[in-house]
Each structure stands twice: as C-alpha cells, then as structure tokens.
# Entry
Amino acid sequence: MHSALCGTESTLSRLAAAGLPASVVDRAFVPFGPVLRERRTWLRRQGLLTDENTEELVVIRAEHS
# Structure
C-alpha cells in the first residue's frame, strides 16, 4: 500500500532498478486522515495536492525473479 503523494512512478522505477519488476494492481481514493489534514498547507505549497480532501492509495506488487 502506497500513497500516490510519494510518487508512484518513482517507486515503480526504483523497484525495477533493484531487480523487482512491479506494477500497480489496485487504486482507491480515500479521505485525508489526520496526518494529511494537518499537513495540507505544506502539501499545497509543495504542489503535491490535486484534491484538497482525498489522496490516492495504490497497491504495488513487486515480483522477485
């Protein structure tokens, strides 16, 4: 489980570079929890928010060859 705010594509690339081919197998949009609500102003200033009330969670599956 991974917040898209952390950079899904970057995570997939790093896993692949480590020899772990990975893909997103599920996605969900959920309301901000207490931590993100508290950090909303900072996230907005960083340009990380696309929605003021929800975040995208992704499930990433990596395979060891």
Summary: The helical segments are 8-17, 34-45. The chain has two helices and three strands. The CA atoms of residues 15 and 60 lie 10 Å apart.
